[in-house]
Each structure stands twice: as structure tokens, then as C-alpha cells.
Design brief:
The chain is built from 22 helices and ten strands. By secondary structure, the protein is of the alpha+beta class. Among the domains are: about 80 residues, no CATH class; about 190 residues, no CATH class; about 60 residues. Helix 13 packs parallel to helix 19. It is globular, with a radius of gyration of 37 Å. The C terminus is likely disordered.
Length: about 550
Amino acid sequence: MGSSFRLLKILRVLFSERIDELLPQPKRRFLKALAWCAPSVRDKRSRGERLKDALQTLGPVFVKFGQMLSTRRDLLPPDIAGPLAELQDRVKPFPEKVSRSIIETDLDCSIDEIFSEFASEVMASASVAQVHAAQLKTGEKVIVKVIRPGIEKVIEEDLKLMMTIAKFVEKNFIDGKRLKLVQVVSDYRMTILDELDLMREAANTALIRRNFIDSPICYVPKIYWDYTRRNVMVEERVYGTPISRIDIFKDKKVNMERLAERGVEIFFTQVFDHSFFHADMHPGNVFVDISDPENPIYKAVDFGIVGTLDPTSQAYLAQNLIAFFDRDYRAVAELHVESGWVPKDTNIGEFESAIRTVCEPIFQKPLGEISFGILLIRLFEVARRFQMEVQPQLILLQKTLLNVEGLGRELYPELDLWKTGKPYLDRWVKKRLGARGIVDYARMNISRWAIQFPALTNTVLSAPERLERLEAIQTQQAESLSYIAREAKKRRLSRYVSAMLGVFGLILSGSALIADHDWFAMYWPLTIAVLSLVLLVRR
């Protein structure tokens, strides 16, 4: 029942904001029949503003969707992309007194005991939490992040509705089964619920900070663990220019090409070197230190959503990307089959041809003009034909790649994503899959092997003794089997003799009886026959 009411609310909001006008004409005609459930609100807001307001009204799940869309200005009209960008850090805040109450409850002390300063004005307000500036008693400038009150209940309702829809689609549509919508929603549920636990976000931040601790191109803030709980997180305040302020970058003559390329480098480093990447890289979470315009430094925040890739997925992904941009469609097709992303019985030739058909027109453009967003759409067409299964572990990666591409194109429209990324991938493949990779693997695991070495040594040294015991056991088993075989042979012979004697005795006794009806004459043959048959049965 709750899901039904939530669905009605969603429809009401969408129709009241006239979101049906954003759909193609045939869809609009179909949906107008349902528009009676909500009165249309006529005002001077643009369609982008109405879409933004609708997503805000519907809650964090929909706001996240709008945030992702806002990074794709190459795919959206300006009047829609602009308002959606406000969802990154300008969601309607909740009252400051509510923030104070949550902080004091979670930390079990008054704000004045911890902070010498606490700004009542909200620095940033997003879908799940909002941020206040503060200063610790020890003098450090910090930000205090607070989870929205009651947000978990709203998210749970939306996720239940999404799961209901996913189950229905999987049950009734072929594409639903192939897309693994139930699994996708389950993974998304874990992701967004993890975002509600600021202890987890703090741990993510600490790990990524360690990964980039000596990096000249990326800085991650410090966590103050003494003041961090599930609903409250205190971290170092970082200063920089929001990545969306291109006007400031141009005014300060920032090297935009280098800035864009460094963003791509950070992405590839996280995915392939660290296997742990920031999966919510919308403009509201990225700042830039432009004190040296020729050497811009990224400063990333908000690590509530992160992604990981196992070594196997890493290898397949790297090889696929290299083969794809080398236009080696045969290798792309074979890698998809080897990885299990398409069925094993897929016709490689047909799959290769289908990939070439959708990709070659795209590659007629300069690499710098190729959009990964468009490419993914085209490849989805191939997927439908060859029952390609969606890989849930790659969904966050795809989302992050779209975000990175969107940011890069905003900063430097001439960005050649492949020119920047391919040398990195080539180095990674040589490093991980070549001879160097074997040496590095051995070096990384030598400490673990050293711990295991004593046990391994004992195993090796005791091997001859174990082999002797094994040979003795095998010899004993062979002798036992031989004895059993001999006994079985004897028994078979004995049974054969008994059977022959029994038959012979019966024949003799029968002959005597028939010849002269001499019962005494047949006594001995009959006795032999009976005894033989008894022995035969007992054996």
C-alpha cells in the first residue's frame, strides 16, 4: 500500500510541474490522460526549473538522478542543465536548530564544548546532508556535516517502490531479465543507505586521503574521528574554487587543458591503481586550488559513494578499452565472451560485426569529439541484440566516467579523453599483465609468503616421508585388492564346480529314476546335487 501511495505522489508531482512536456509527443498524448490526478501549475518558471523543483520535492533518490544529469551539458539543453546544476549543493536546507540538536545528541555534549565558532548559516545543502562551517577549540577550521532528519524513511519508501517496479519488469520483460534490475536496485540500495552512515563516509575519506597523501595533483581533507558519528562528521575545511566556476578559472588564466587532463588522470589512478574510486564526482564535490594557475590542484570532498573493482574486472575493463579505441572489434567481442558479459555461445563474427556497425560512424569524428555518453547508448543497442548482461559492479564506474567526462568537457571542450587515458592504460596493462607485473606481485606479497614459509618448508621437507607412507599405503591396498581378486576367483571357480556337480547329480538321479525307478540308486546323485546347490547358495 505504501508503494502505491508513493507512486501516486510521484505522478502528482510530475504532472503538477508539467514534466510530461519534456517527453516526446506520442508519450505526452498518452500521459495527458492521467493528468487529471494533479492540477497544472502555470507560472513563469522554465522547464528546467520545474524539473529541478520536482526532483527536489520527490527526495534524495531523485535529486541524485538530477545531479548525474546536470553533468551532461553535452546531452541536455542549456535551459535544463543549468537549473539541474543547482541540485549539487543548493538543495533547500533544514533549520540550524535542528542541526544543533542532531550534533549535540550524537556527540553527547553541547556545541560550545567542542567549537569556538559554529556558523548558523548553511555552507552547502545536498540531498542527504547539509554542511556548516565551524572552528574547533584547538583552532582548526573545519566543516560539520549533518544527516537530514527522517531522510532514511523517505529513501526506504522510494527504494521499495523501485524494487517493486524492478521485479515487475524482470518478470514481464526480456530486457528486464537481461539488465538484472533487481540486482541493480539492490546494489543501489546498499550504496545510498551507506551514504546515510557518516562513519562509513569518514572511513572512505581516510582511505582515499592515504592513497593521495603524496600526490601533487589531488588533496583530500583530514577526518577528526573524535567528533565523528553516524549522523555527524567533522573534517578539515578545504579552500578552493568550485569546479563549476569556469568564469573564475578563465579570469585567473588557469591552464584549462592541464586541469581537465588531471581530472582524467585522477579518475584512472583511482580505478586502476587504487581499485577504490570516488563515485559521486559531481561539481558540488570538487574544488580547485588555483593559487598557481599553471599547476591547479584538485580538492575532493564527500566520499559517501565510492566504488571498487576486483582485479579480474580491472583487467577485462582495461583490455576492452584499449581494444575498443584501437578499433579491434574482434578483441572486444572475444573479451566480452571470455568475461561472461555475453553468453558463451555468442557468434563472435556476428558480435564483432554489430560492434563495428555502431562504432565506426562514431570514430569518423576526431577522438576529442567522441562522447562516451553517446557511445554507451549505441552499445546498449548491441547489448539488446546479444543478450549482454548488465554488470552491477560496473554501474558506479559508468556513472563516474560520465561525470568525469562531463566535468572535463566543461573545463576544456577540446579534451581528448582517449589521448589522456590511453597511455595510462597501456602502462597499467604492461605493469599488471606483463613480466613487470609478476615481479611487482611477488614483491607485494613477499611479507605474506614469509609468514607462510615455515609451514611451507615443513610441508616440503616432510614430502619424502609422506611419499613413502603413501607408497606403503598404495602397496598395502594393492595387496589387499589382489587377495580379494584371488578369493573372488576361487569363489567363482568353487561356485562353478558346485553348480556343475549339482546339475550332474540331478541328471544322474533323474536318469536312475527314469530307468528303473530305483530310489536307492538315485540317493547318492541326489545327495550330491543338494549339497552342491547348498554350497553354491552359501557362497
